[in-house]
């Protein structure tokens, strides 16, 4: 019972009761705001209209009228539909074939192509369902009047019943292999977690060991201390992705050498954020406790498990503050979709600029801390070196003495 009372007293006087109650409430509120709907509405799609007729434009209007799809762009031709998935702006490409209106008027079948980004199955389910509903509706509108006619041959009858044939093509992960989704996500998460555990207490460790003031004589020393974390975390992540491809059969289409560039920026940027977040921690344990401020938001907003299309625009913008979100975007686009690095130059430039800003913030924080420690040292030195006030005082022997010094006796004159 003594152990129970002792632990009870410790917990009651700690912050744990508040944390245990408040954090679940924050999680409920946060996820409720992040996921206002359990389905993706108005997903951006590209329509390749090779027919460019009145009926094809009417068909596009029906696609756009669906609550699940938003026709964001219409093009007349493309020989590389995969390029529309590289920057994660679109979830599907719908191809309307040449002769669509002519086949419709002649009661012949037309094959409409539906190309889906299958890196996240959750994001395309509603699109597939909506296109199937549209094709069934079109077939019914065509077949009912046609079946009332007479003199139809077998080919026309088949075309009347199947006027629109939907051909679905799932790209990048057609078999829904867990190696390319769940296992890949948790592999990156564990690497991210280990990086946070080891880099968050960097400044606190220097403070506890009384070495922080010496390190801050050159503010760039903090950035130099980040390089070993960058080296080992980059090597570990690249090695784990290679093992997943070689032995697990996972998909990785990027050039491993070129893919190191965004991974290095991600690791260095993450360590910068960790240093800034945990700078004021008095002890390494306190610094590690702040991992919840980085790990969970970054992992959720990266789209590793939940499709980013589910999130409101504000949540997506907040996610861009976490380098892990950028890294996972590069992993999906270069690793799974096979995009060349040239296609990702805008994102790479943005990430490089962001990491540069984080580095300057670390230097500014180091300079501010250096100035703060210098003022504290000067204050302590002035307190220790100040002399005691000198006050004249009379001695018991009739002489004068200085307080804090031995008395000097006064001799009476010798009487003759």
How would you describe what is shown here?
Keywords: Cell membrane, Membrane, Transmembrane, Transmembrane helix. GO terms for molecular function: ABC-type transporter activity. Residues 18-363 form the ABC-2 type transporter transmembrane domain. It is found in: Cell membrane. The protein is of the alpha/beta class and 416 residues long. The strands form 2 sheets. It has a 5-stranded mixed sheet. It has a two-stranded antiparallel sheet with strand order 6-7. 56% of the residues lie in helices and 10% in strands.
Poorly predicted runs are 393-408, 410-416
Identify the strand order in the major beta sheet. 2-1-3-4-5
Mean pLDDT rating: 81
Give the percentage of residues in beta strands. Answer: 5-15%
Secondary structure: number of strands:
7
Q: Gist?
A:
This protein is an alpha/beta fold and 416 residues long. The chain has helices at residues 2-12, 16-34, 54-65, 100-105, 125-147, 154-161, 182-199, 202-208, 212-215, 220-225, 227-246, 256-277, 284-289, 295-301, 313-319, 323-336, 345-385, and strands spanning 43-49, 69-75, 92-96, 110-117, 164-171, 392-394, 400-402.
């Amino acid at each position: 019972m003594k152990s129970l009372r002792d632990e009870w007293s410790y917990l009651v006087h700690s912050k744990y009761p508040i944390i245990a109650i408040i954090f679940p409430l924050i999680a409920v509120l946060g996820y409720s705001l992040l996921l206002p709907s359990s389905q993706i509405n108005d997903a951006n799609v590209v329509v390749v209209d090779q027919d460019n007729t009145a009926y094809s434009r009417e068909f596009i209007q029906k696609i756009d009228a669906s609550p699940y799809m938003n026709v964001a762009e219409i093009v007349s031709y493309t020989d590389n539909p995969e390029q529309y998935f590289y920057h994660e702006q679109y979830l599907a490409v719908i191809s309307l074939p040449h002769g669509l209106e002519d086949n419709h008027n002649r009661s012949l079948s037309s094959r409409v192509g539906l190309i889906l980004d299958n890196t996240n199955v959750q994001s395309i389910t509603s699109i597939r369902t909506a296109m199937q509903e549209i094709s069934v509706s079109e077939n019914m509108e065509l077949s009912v009047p046609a079946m009332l006619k007479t003199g139809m041959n077998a080919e026309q009858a088949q075309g009347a019943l199947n006027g629109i044939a939907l051909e679905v093509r799932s790209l990048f992960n057609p078999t829904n292999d867990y190696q390319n989704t769940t296992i890949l996500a948790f592999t990156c998460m564990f690497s991210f977690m280990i990086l946070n555990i080891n880099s968050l207490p960097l400044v606190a460790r220097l403070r506890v060991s009384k070495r922080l003031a010496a390190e801050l004589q050159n503010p760039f020393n903090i950035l130099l201390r980040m390089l070993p974390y960058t080296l080992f975390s980059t090597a570990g992540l690249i090695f784990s992705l290679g093992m997943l491809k070689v032995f697990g059969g996972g998909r990785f289409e990027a050039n491993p050498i070129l893919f190191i560039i965004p991974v290095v920026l991600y690791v260095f940027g993450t360590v910068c954020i960790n240093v800034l977040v945990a700078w004021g921690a008095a002890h390494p344990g306190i610094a590690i406790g702040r991992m919840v401020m980085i790990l969970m938001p970054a992992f959720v907003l990266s789209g590793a498990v939940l499709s980013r299309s589910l999130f409101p625009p504000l949540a997506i913008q907040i996610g861009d503050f976490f380098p892990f979100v950028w890294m996972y975007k590069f992993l999906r686009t270069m690793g799974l979709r096979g995009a060349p690095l040239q296609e990702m130059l805008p994102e790479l430039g943005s990430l490089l600029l962001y990491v540069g800003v984080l580095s300057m913030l670390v230097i500014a924080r180091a300079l501010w801390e250096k100035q703060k420690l210098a003022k504290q040292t000067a204050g302590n030195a002035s307190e220790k070196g100040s002399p005691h006030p000198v006050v004249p005082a009379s001695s018991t022997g009739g002489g004068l003495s200085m307080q804090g010094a031995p008395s000097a006796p006064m001799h009476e004159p010798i009487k003759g």
